[in-house]
Amino acid sequence: MKKRMILMLVIVVAVIGVLAFVKYKQISVAIAQGKAWAPPPEAVTTVVTKQETWPRTLRSIGTVSAVQGVTVSADLPGIVDKIAFDSGHAVREGDVLAVLDSRQEHAQLAAAEAQLELTRVSLERMNGLLGKGVTSKSELDRAAAEHKQAEARVGEVKATIARKTVRAPFSGVLGIRLVNEGQYLEGGKPIVSLQAIDPVHIDFAIPQQDLGPVKVGAEVLLTAEGTEGTVTGKVTALDSVVDESTRNVRIQATAANRDARLRPGMYVHVDVNLGAGQPVIALPASAVLNAPYGDSVFIVEDVKSPDGAKTYKGARQQFVKVGAGRGDQVAVLTGLDAGAEVVTSGVFKLRNNVAVLVNNDVQPANNPAPKPEDN
């Protein structure tokens, strides 16, 4: 009995040992396979960088304003007797825009002219009587004063009549009519807006640290949404103070506007030309990974495996300084050299030393002047 138990114990130990050995071999093989496993490469597109020269520009948002702009209003109260303009039409300086009823003033003018004629005759009579010694010098002076008062009264009534004829103070384009014939207008009531829109002013602001290279006479390119092409202008004035709340400096540019493409109140994109161009590396905007700690790109290059036995095509993160954009492109100022192979799509799924598979059959947009512009 004792021998049987010992035999059974030996057999059980032997079976357990065999099973443990088999399991150990399986685990060893699995560990070896795990060490040898590598994730599949990430599919990306790339572009080989090259250096370009971009013009030095400074971009801002501006507002179009008229060189001269007023709201034409009635100087005196009265009833609109005639409207002599059409909404939206161009007018010349001095053109009649509206006439207010002045029948009462014309009646007053007739009475004043009659009084003026009476004082003139009286003054001539006094001159004759003074020569004959019939009247005194004081009576002649009184007649002369009455004559001057009558002349002044006639001039006053004529000025009132003239003020009831509303004229264009300068040449420009009218807005929408705000009054109708027969309407009673109070003094100062607006009639129509008048804007001189050729040329126009463009007001914009830039940070104080960018003010240095901006000079009077610098060229500006203006682009307005809803219009085609660009308008060229020049910087004509720089504000003498810096806004304390924003630390920005107001700048005014002037541009020709013969085709009335720009209208007062429009906002425009302003690109100020700062002179000689600067060398940059132009990349598609999709190639730059933006993050709070800095902008970066991924460069494709040969990477050694952890054991150093072989190399593979992998990605390396490179931090860069990014400048202005142009169309689908963005300018890299520092951190990248020409000739590098940079990932242009798929950057969000990459990390340092990850394997990549380059497939450039379909490339992201990389046009400096796309059509439409907001591509």
Describe this structure in words.
By secondary structure, the protein is an alpha+beta fold. Among the domains are: about 40-55 and about 275-360, Beta Barrel (conserved putative lor/sdh protein from methanococcus maripaludis s2 fold); about 60-65 and about 200-275, Efflux pump adaptor protein, beta barrel domain (Elongation Factor Tu (Ef-tu), domain 3); about 100-165, Helix hairpin bin (Helix Hairpins, Orthogonal Bundle), CATH 1.10.287. The protein has helices spanning about 1-35, 105-130, 135-165; strands at about 40-50, 50-55, 55-75, 80-85, 90, 95-100, 165, 170-175, 185, 190-205, 220-225, 230-240, 250-255, 265-275, 280-285, 295-305, 310-325, 330-335, 340-345, 355-360. The protein has a 6-stranded antiparallel beta barrel. A 5-stranded antiparallel sheet has the order 2-15-18-17-16, with no helix packed on it. Strands 7-6-4-9 form a 4-stranded antiparallel sheet. Strand 11 (about 220-225) and strand 12 (about 230-240) form a beta hairpin. Helix 2 packs antiparallel against helix 3. The mean pLDDT is about 85.
Topology diagram in text:
Blueprint: H1 2-36, E1 42-48, E2 51-54, E3 57-73, E4 78-83, E5 90-91, E6 96-100, H2 103-131, H3 137-163, E7 165-167, E8 172-174, E9 184-185, E10 190-207, E11 219-223, E12 231-238, E13 248-255, E14 267-273, E15 278-284, E16 295-304, E17 311-326, E18 329-334, E19 341-345, E20 356-358
Parallel strand pairs: 1-20
Antiparallel strand pairs: 1-19, 2-15, 3-10, 3-14, 4-6, 4-9, 5-8, 6-7, 8-10, 10-13, 11-12, 11-14, 12-13, 15-18, 16-17, 17-18
